[in-house]
């Protein structure tokens, strides 16, 4: 309130430093008062300003009071002189001696009996005089200032102060403002008479205490949703261990295919082999590989049961699609189906920023009479439209179990080029007919990885930051909800 | 996918016109190729070995073109140009035939029975009256290398040797001998070595050492001699120096031996053309177009499959050349028609397939549960299904033999030794990687573990688990216990000894003694919860107390 009185008296405003000295309190007290007045609204307006001035350091103050080191050296030498060793014992001895020497206030007689002895000449302690000048607020020459600064006797201090003027709702009397509404105020109605402290809407709120879903799983949820919206049923993909038979042979992938190499696929040592197969189907698969049939030349090689039996970690979820299509073929009467799955697959690959030994494959399959390549492209168009991707084009490709095979490219607006977003094709008759599906049934399918769209969606460059234990939990905490089409 | 590098200007010269990079990229896309990279020898060397090494190298522009893995006919400049020119209707597909030598006498390759122990099959052919230029020679050698890397599976299935026929004389013998009994001067060496010496010589050869394993452990090594006992080659490793081809070679003797082929006693190469008949309707129906038969025949001809309507209805006769071993079914022909038509010219249609969608029950339950566990304040982690034996056994204070884990036979590193049998190690490793995060850490995961199960065809099955941990300055058993109670509430299981769930003290080496309980639902054990053993905590490089819960969720379906 004392501050307010001063502000009222002053016409143009006051400086907080002057206020502090006139009331006789520390400047920080005034700063605190200014801040609390500011929070009350427009009682005052305060503009921050800063000023620089020179101040004596602790050492400077000592020197201003007791004289410079060299003067004290001078003062402590009696007329008859003093042994140098005695002088050096004094706290100011060392510095003072060299300065006093260079000022020629003292002299050393090295040949004196009992060691060098020091004698006084005459003195003018300019350092002390200059320090006293500074203390009184007077200005020094630049050269002198720098000399004293170098000796750490002076420092330049910046003082922040406020220029305080009256605000639009200036008053010298203060009503205390309430911080929060309380149950008592509501009960008594006292809130009507109170003034409330304004909120700082610039500050952040308090983060809620909550759990979080993993971003890759959020994206998985959205892909499931899309398939379900399109009428696709989910396949049972909860079998990571698969036989080479279902993973490769049933898909008409020859036994010498490089994907079946140790370098690409994880084989199992325990349990090393699968034992149960639908025998007559297995025979038909063997025949179509080794001799052909169903209009095919086959691959013409000796198909080996031992290769088919080898257990592996599935390399694609298409192994499950094969099982499902075989199951479908065993129905009394064929019914059209639309299937999907999103689950883990495994590759014995060299790992890098975008490749891990396991990833999630998204797969869609449609089986019906008379499906065409145009149908496949139409379904893909609908699927990708739900992901917010409308510009698609298709490139001929090769895949052992689909013919035709098409790589799906979408136009990336950011990169200004076409990027591959998935793979697709029509399953080969050599795969479908041995299963027992009707000859005029076509099966179209496509696949993509779950990780890649997720990395793009959440702007993650290194796959290890997304999947696995090295994940950054802060990223999980901070990741927004997933809407793939926006 | 194999990549073929060709010099751009030579390619354009052969194609009879030049393209901008974009135009050529477009042409590749349409044909099913991919212009992977535009570079130069200089750029490649400077990228791989640094600028200093690259200073003298050529800066002629190279196109690196990705070729589909089944198109061996496109693995060189000549093949690519032929394919593209025919595709663009600028060239008719050549017809290949075998020509007998003017002397009338064919060369013979005699295969002895000893080869059965190592690489039992072989064929040979002769290429006569050719003229190499530097470019052609390089392309010839590169094509051989591409074939080795791809269809020959890095020489493990097939190896090809080429020789200057004028330096050797038939008949040739393909046999197999113990390594000590084979001795010859190999390509680009200046003295004779025995086969055993060669195997140790090439141990350090950056290129050849990759092929040594193919025959290394065999009792006999394959070898080809001419009638004077000159060694042509020791497949699949190296040729003899004597018969090496050069720019002046006129007649090339080509031999291939393999492990899988079935060749009779024939005059080679067979160069067999095969004829297939199909209908225009078949193509139209499968692709989803309606082109006249005549047009379809033209589309196929543009893909090097010479085709003609037979006149009988919409029947088309298609001739499959020996260069297209990938065409084994009518669907392969149909694909070529679709490519020539242009995939992107096909009208996109919506199939009328009517189906009702169903979720897989265990996934539906998982999805619902995950949402509510996050709402209960736990954060979802996502860990690898593969891990080390140590993670699921030693570190949890268990023996690997107790775990029912499936084991991987060919892991490249210890991280891929087994499929996990518990979700707990993954969550603990996630905490360890996030020690800087504010406490408490509350994590969960619902995912599959893999267990051996003899009742399954493959001898193993997945099991869907729910695991949660609480990591803080105090163990917080009550927090994890509370989460169990909440989970049971979500699953509509009451707290009751018989008709609901209860927990009861259990011994488990993963947990601190006296701080572990087994979870029973309707009298059946579904999992465990408790305070982790301090040794387990330390083995995962953690320092705070931690309580955990892991249970099966399949019983709640």
TrEMBL record, chain A:
Its EC number is 6.1.1.20. Residues 218-480 form the Aminoacyl-transfer RNA synthetases class-II family profile domain. Gene3D superfamilies: 1.10.10.2320, 1.10.10.2330, 3.30.1370.240, Bira Bifunctional Protein, Domain 2. Its main location: cytoplasm. One of its GO terms (biological process) is phenylalanyl-tRNA aminoacylation. GO terms for molecular function: ATP binding; metal ion binding; phenylalanine-tRNA ligase activity; tRNA binding. CDD domains: PheRS_alpha_core. It is found in: Cytoplasm. Keywords: Aminoacyl-tRNA synthetase, ATP-binding, Cytoplasm, Ligase, Magnesium, Metal-binding, Nucleotide-binding, Protein biosynthesis. NCBIfam families: pheS, PRK04172.1. Belongs to the class-II aminoacyl-tRNA synthetase family. Phe-tRNA synthetase alpha subunit type 2 subfamily. This is phenylalanine--tRNA ligase.
Automatic annotation (TrEMBL), chain B:
Transmembrane segments: none annotated. Residues 271-348 form the B5 domain. Keywords: Aminoacyl-tRNA synthetase, ATP-binding, Cytoplasm, Ligase, Magnesium, Metal-binding, Nucleotide-binding, Protein biosynthesis. PROSITE patterns: B5. GO terms for cellular component: phenylalanine-tRNA ligase complex. GO terms for molecular function: ATP binding; magnesium ion binding; phenylalanine-tRNA ligase activity; RNA binding. Its cofactor is Mg(2+). Its EC number is 6.1.1.20. It is an enzyme of class 6 (ligase). InterPro entries: aa-tRNA-synth_II/BPL/LPL (IPR045864), B3/B4_tRNA-bd (IPR005146), DNA-bd_dom_put_sf (IPR009061), Phe-tRNA-ligase_IIc_bsu (IPR045060), Phe-tRNA_synthase-like_B3/B4 (IPR020825), PheRS_beta_core (IPR041616), PhetRS_B1 (IPR040659), tRNA_synthase_B5-dom (IPR005147). It is found in: Cytoplasm. Its main location: cytoplasm. One of its GO terms (biological process) is phenylalanyl-tRNA aminoacylation. Belongs to the phenylalanyl-tRNA synthetase beta subunit family. Type 2 subfamily. This is Phenylalanine--tRNA ligase beta subunit. It comes from Oryzias sinensis (Chinese medaka).
């Amino acid at each position: 309130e004392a501050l307010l009185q001063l502000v009222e008296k002053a016409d143009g405003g006051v400086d907080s430093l002057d206020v502090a000295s006139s009331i006789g309190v520390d400047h920080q007290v005034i700063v605190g008062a200014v801040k609390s007045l500011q929070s009350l609204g427009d009682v005052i307006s305060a503009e921050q300003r800063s000023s620089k001035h020179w101040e004596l350091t602790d050492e400077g103050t000592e020197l201003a009071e007791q004289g410079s080191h060299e003067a004290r050296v001078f003062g402590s030498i009696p007329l008859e002189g003093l042994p140098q060793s005695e002088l050096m014992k004094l706290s100011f001895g060392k510095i003072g001696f060299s300065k006093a020497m260079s000022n020629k206030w003292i002299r050393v007689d090295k040949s004196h009996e009992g060691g060098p002895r020091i004698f006084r000449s005459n003195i003018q302690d300019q350092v002390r005089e200059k320090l006293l000048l500074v203390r009184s607020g007077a200005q020094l020459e630049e050269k002198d200032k720098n000399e004293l600064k170098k000796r750490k006797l002076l420092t330049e201090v910046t003082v922040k102060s406020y220029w305080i003027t009256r605000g639009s709702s200036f008053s010298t009397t203060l009503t205390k403002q309430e911080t929060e509404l309380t149950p008592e105020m509501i009960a008594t109605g006292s809130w009507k008479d109170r003034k409330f402290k304004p909120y700082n809407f610039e500050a952040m709120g308090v983060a809620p205490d909550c759990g979080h879903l993993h971003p890759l799983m959020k994206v998985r949820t959205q892909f499931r949703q899309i398939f379900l919206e399109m009428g696709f049923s989910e396949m049972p993909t909860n079998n990571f261990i698969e036989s080479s038979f279902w993973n490769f042979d049933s898909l008409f992938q020859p036994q010498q295919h490089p994907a079946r190499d140790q370098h690409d696929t994880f084989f199992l040592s325990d349990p090393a082999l699968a034992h149960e197969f639908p025998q007559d189907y297995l025979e038909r698969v063997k025949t179509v590989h080794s001799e052909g049939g169903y209009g095919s030349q086959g691959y013409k090689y000796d198909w080996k049961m031992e290769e088919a039996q080898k257990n592996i970690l599935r390399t694609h979820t298409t192994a499950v699609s094969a099982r499902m299509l075989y199951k479908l073929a065993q129905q009394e009467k064929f019914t059209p189906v639309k299937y999907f799955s999103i689950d883990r697959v495994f590759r014995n690959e060299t790992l890098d920023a975008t490749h891990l030994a396991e990833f999630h494959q998204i797969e869609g399959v449609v089986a019906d009479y008379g499906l065409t390549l145009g149908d496949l492209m139409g379904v893909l168009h609908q699927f990708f439209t739900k992901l917010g991707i409308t510009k698609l084009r298709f490139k001929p490709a090769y895949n052992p179990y689909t013919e035709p095979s098409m790589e799906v490219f979408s136009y990336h607006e950011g990169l200004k080029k076409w990027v591959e977003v998935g793979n697709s094709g029509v399953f080969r008759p050599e795969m479908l007919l041995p299963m027992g599906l009707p000859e005029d049934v076509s099966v179209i399918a496509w696949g993509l990885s779950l990780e890649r769209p997720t990395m793009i969606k959440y702007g993650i460059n290194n796959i290890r930051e997304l999947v696995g234990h090295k994940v950054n939990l802060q990223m999980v905490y901070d990741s927004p909800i997933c809407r793939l089409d926006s | 996918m194999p990549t073929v590098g060709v010099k751009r200007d030579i390619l354009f010269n052969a194609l009879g016109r030049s393209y901008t990079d974009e135009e050529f990229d477009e042409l590749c896309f349409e044909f099913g190729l991919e212009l992977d990279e535009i570079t130069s020898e200089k750029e490649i060397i400077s990228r791989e070995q640094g600028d200093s090494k690259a200073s003298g190298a050529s800066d002629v522009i190279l196109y690196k073109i990705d070729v589909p893995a089944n198109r061996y006919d496109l693995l060189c400049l000549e093949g690519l140009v032929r394919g593209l020119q025919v595709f663009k209707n600028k060239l008719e597909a050549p017809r290949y035939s075998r020509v007998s030598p003017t002397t009338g006498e064919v060369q013979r390759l005699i295969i002895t029975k000893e080869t059965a122990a190592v690489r039992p099959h072989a064929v040979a052919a002769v290429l006569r009256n050719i003229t190499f230029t530097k470019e052609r020679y390089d392309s010839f050698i590169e094509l051989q290398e591409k074939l080795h890397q791809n269809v020959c599976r890095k020489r493990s299935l097939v190896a090809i040797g080429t020789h200057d026929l004028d330096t050797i004389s038939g008949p040739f013998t393909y046999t197999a001998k113990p390594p000590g009994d084979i001795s010859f001067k190999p390509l680009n060496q200046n003295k004779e070595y025995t086969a055993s010496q060669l195997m140790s010589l090439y141990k350090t050869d950056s290129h050849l050492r990759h092929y040594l394993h193919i025959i290394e452990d065999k009792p006999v090594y394959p070898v080809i001699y001419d009638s004077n006992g000159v060694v042509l080659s020791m497949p699949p490793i190296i040729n003899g120096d004597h018969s090496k081809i050069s720019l002046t070679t006129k007649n090339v003797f080509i031999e291939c031996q393999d492990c899988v082929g079935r060749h009779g006693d024939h005059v080679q190469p067979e160069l067999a053309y095969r004829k297939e008949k199909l209908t225009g309707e078949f193509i139209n129906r499968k692709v989803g177009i309606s082109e006249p038969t005549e047009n379809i025949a033209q589309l196929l001809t543009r893909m090097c499959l010479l085709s003609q309507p037979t006149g009988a209805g919409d029947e088309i006769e298609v001739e499959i050349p020996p260069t297209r071993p990938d065409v084994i079914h009518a669907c392969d022909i149909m694909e070529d028609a679709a490519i020539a038509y242009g995939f992107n010219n096909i009208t996109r249609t919506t199939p009328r397939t009517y189906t009702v969608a169903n979720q897989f029950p265990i996934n539906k339950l998982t999805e619902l549960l995950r949402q509510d566990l996050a709402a209960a304040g736990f954060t979802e982690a996502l860990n690898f299904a593969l891990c080390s034996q140590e993670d699921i056994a030693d570190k949890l204070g268990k023996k690997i033999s107790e775990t029912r884990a499936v084991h991987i036979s060919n892991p490249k590193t210890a991280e891929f030794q087994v499929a996990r049998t518990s979700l707990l190690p993954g969550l603990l490793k996630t905490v360890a990687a996030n020690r800087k995060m504010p406490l408490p850490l509350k994590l969960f995961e619902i995912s599959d573990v893999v267990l051996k199960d003899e009742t399954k065809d493959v001898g193993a099955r997945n099991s869907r688990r729910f695991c949660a941990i609480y990591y803080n300055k105090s163990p917080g058993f009550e927090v994890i216990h509370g989460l169990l109670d909440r989970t049971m509430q979500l699953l509509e299981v009451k707290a009751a000894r018989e008709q609901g769930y209860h927990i009861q003290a259990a011994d488990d080496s993963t947990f601190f003694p006296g701080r572990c309980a087994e979870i029973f639902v309707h009298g059946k054990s579904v999992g465990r919860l408790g305070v982790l053993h301090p040794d387990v905590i330390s083995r995962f490089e953690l320092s705070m107390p931690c309580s955990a819960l892991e249970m099966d969720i399949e019983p709640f379906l």
